[in-house]
Structures are given as C-alpha cells and as structure tokens.
Design goal:
The protein is mainly alpha-helical. 79% of the residues lie in helices and 4% in strands. The longest helix is centred in the middle third of the chain and has 49 residues. It has two domains: 199 residues, no CATH class; 47 residues, no CATH class. It starts with 10 loop residues before the first helix and ends with a helix. It contains eight helices and two strands. Helix 5 runs antiparallel to helix 7. A two-stranded antiparallel ribbon has the order 1-2. It is found in: Cell membrane. Its main location: membrane.
Length: 263
Amino acid sequence: MTMPSSAAPSREVTLLIGAAGMLFHDLANLRQQLAENAAIRARFLGRLHPGPAAVRMLRLLGAILATPARWKALMLGGLVGTVTVAEVLVVLRLATWNADFFNALEAKSFASLVNQIWVLLAIVTGMMALQGLSLQTKMQLQMVLRGHLTRIVRDAWMSEGRYYRLRMSTGEHDNEDGRLTEDVRVVCEMVVEFLVSLLYAFIQLALFVGVLWLHSGPLTIAVGEASFTLPGHMVWVALGYAAIGAAIITLVGHPLVRATDRR
C-alpha cells in the first residue's frame, strides 16, 4: 500500500532536520569547550585586574601554564632564550675579531689576514643561521600564545550570550571577531618581541661591561691637589653616553607609547 504523498517527509524537511541536528551537535561541543576553560576564564577574566595593561596581558598569557600547551610553550621559550644568548656571543666574537684583524694588519702577516677572513665568514654564517632560527622560534612561540589567548577571549565573548547581547546594545559593533583576532595578534607579537629584546639587551650589557672593565683599566683624575682613580673608566663613559641617549629617546618617544596603548 502506498503512503499518501502528503504524509511523506519532503526533501526540505529532511535537510532542515539534519541541519538542526548539526547545530545542536555544534552547540554541545561549544558548551563543552566553554566548560573546560571555565577555570581559566573565571580566574583571569572574572574581575577587573588593577595595574597597567602590560601586567594584565602578561597574566592572560601566563595562564597558558595551566593548559596542556604549557610544555610546548616552555620548550619554545627556552629555545628562544638559548638562541638569544648565542646571538649575543656571536656579536661579542665579532667585536674581538676586529682586534684580531687589525693586529694581523699591523703585523703585516698575510697568513694571519687570510685566517681572519675565514673567521669572519664563519661568524657571518653563524649570525645568519642564528637570526633565521630566532625568527622561526619566535613566530612559533607567538602562534602557540596566540592560540591560547584566542581561546580565552573567544570563550569570554561567547559565554553568557555576550555575542548576542552586543547586537542589542547601542553604538557601533561591527566585525567583533576580526577586532578580537587583531588585538590578540598584536598582543602576542609585541610581548614576545619585547621580552626577547629585553633579554638580548641585558645579556649584551653584562658581557660588554665585563669586556670594557677588563680592557679599559683605571684612570687617575687630578683635581687641584686631590686625585682619585676611576677603575674601568670606559665603563662609566659608555654608561653615561647610553644614559644621555636613553633620556633623549624616552623624552621624544614616550607620547608614542600612550598612543600605542590607546590603539
């Protein structure tokens, strides 16, 4: 016996039922992901943290240590630090190479000059390899941190119907997902670049201060009948020169910091 055509489910109804099932399945997965990150969200986004924006960003990024991605982040962070130390050592070797090169010229030794040329090629090759490795590891670390921060921000945006209530509020609220993505990218890139640059500067400061201290020697300064000896005098000259330059740069560039924070 043939069922009447009116009782048979149409193709559109079947597709609608299938789409509804997929939607419920996606909502269930989303609810599960929100629940998994609830602890992190409650800890780092549940209340407004005082202090500068940089501190709040570091707290958000530091939350990766409570996730399964912490080992990958720690491994990449350690590799970035090791490569940074190696880069400073290569720069220090280049500085000592200058002395060896001019000593070879002063001695008029062709064999020593050729040897220093090979040493320079090795230094340049090593520097290029380290810079390439540093760029690759920094980008991988930024990607890991970006994925972590994206999940936190996405969960906060999707929870409690914020994405829906935002549509009902007044003001311009277009392309929220794109804005969140761009903010996360900028934060991760700037934090990694800043911390690596800071580490590079501190290591370079320590090594070159040590080199200047050992090679500059004491300087005796006479003022009238009194005199005093300044040990490692080139260290103090270099620090004074750097302090003057840093003061000028800070005075000129400080407004740019506030402009970047506002953006």
